[in-house]
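Order emerges. As here.
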Amino acid sequence: MEQSEEWEGIERQVRIAAGTGILEGDLRLPVGANGIVLFAHGSGSSRHSPRNRYVARLLNEAKLATLLLDLLTPDEEAVDLRTGHFRFDMDFLAGRLSDATDWLVHDPDTGHLPIGYFGASTGAGAAMVAAAEQPNLVGAIVSRGGRPDLAEPILPRVRAPTLLIVGGNDTMVIELNRAALAALRCEKELVIIRGATHLFEEPGALDAVALFTRTWFERHLVPAIEEATIRN
């Protein structure tokens, strides 16, 4: 998706202290933003993922800010590519997401915005854990081809409305998401996109992901800021 000529706002690279590391991220804040979505990338992916950047651009056009963040430092990423050590460590990745969420709360450009999580692949499991640990900060979750089952013990504690999106041909992941859906006790929904595989590379598949994602966050994040505006 190309950047719209009408798009106006702040676009900047950020560096966030998390534990002993510094995380790199790309923040895009449209004028009049109604919320912000923090992207938790999956195994072997990064903030440069073309699929996640595509979804982020559609959210930006809908007045939703986005933060695409590398949850691993370059050194950690190098280790993970060899060993897979970090990508399945949900507590470690969730801790990174929590640190980034805290940064959003205290940054003057984003501190007033309700926060949502968009998790892909193993990043969805980390998003579930982080959301359960911060129930008053995370307003909604979307999982794309995700592994929420990796957070199975804490799924009943997730309070944020959660949308699970899976490709219709991604058979194993469908079953894992159905099990996760049954374990969740929050508002929840499972969407299966016909003909799509795990990476949603088929024509129209990623467009469908972006549309469902935008609709979910508009439904669950935008009302939060509107209600706050009315109260003030």
Notes: The chain is about 40% helix and 25% strand.
